[in-house]
Amino acid sequence: MSTLTLSKDPLIYDPNQPARRGVHTFHGVLTLLAWLAYAYLWLPVITVIAWMLGLRTSYVQLYVQSYEFDRDVFGILFLLAIIATALLIGWAEYNRHKFAGKDRRIPQTDVDVEDVAAFMLAPAALGRQLAGAKRIVLSMDPHGRPLAASETAALA
User: Fold this and answer.
1) Residue 48: inside a domain, yes or no?
2) Rounded CA gap, 126 and 116, in Å?
């Protein structure tokens, strides 16, 4: 009779397995290609929305009919872009000066260390150790409850 063995979670660091840079690079490239394919699938919808907004018509009116750019129209468009940029930056600066240095959030009370440990189903001493450490490695039981912790040196 065979037993079912669960594979290790690929997102949890296992110190017994060396890091494989090639695998991580391959997964990154594969993810990028998947996002590019996903974006490519949205192009027909974006094209229809652009046509509905009249963007194709403006391209035809500005360029295709005379096969040259109308400098006056593009000058006005450039000026409008500068004005819109100035307005957005001005609004952002107004908000920065108005709200800078003012914490309008309601202060929250700190959670007790023993409450955190009880929530994780861990001993209270472990909760205190977690609260006082900057970087720590947890030892977990098979059910995902922390058993012990050891501090590690900071990364260089």
Assistant:
1) yes
2) 10
Range(s) of the domain holding residue 29: 19-53
User: What string of H, E and C letters represents the secondary structure of the chain?
Assistant: CCCCCCCCCCCCCCCCCCCCHHHHHHHHHHHHHHHHHHHHHHHHHHHHHHHHCCHHHHHHHHHHCCCCCCHHHHHHHHHHHHHHHHHHHHHHHHHHHHHCCCCCCCCCCCCCHHHHHHHCCCCHHHHHHHHHCCCEEEEECCCCCEEEEEECCCCC
Mean pLDDT, contiguous 10-residue spans, the chain (156 residues)? 47 59 82 94 88 75 68 84 95 90 79 85 84 84 83 68
39: in domain? yes
Which residue type, as a one-letter code, is found at position 77? Answer: L
Question: Is residue 10 situated within a structural domain?
Answer: no
Q: How many domains does the chain have?
A: 2
pLDDT of residue 36: 95
CB within 8 A of 141, min separation 6: which ones? Answer: 147
Q: Give this prediction's pTM.
A: 0.31
In this prediction, residue 107 carries a pLDDT of: 81
74 domain residue, yes or no: no
Residue 145, pLDDT score: 83
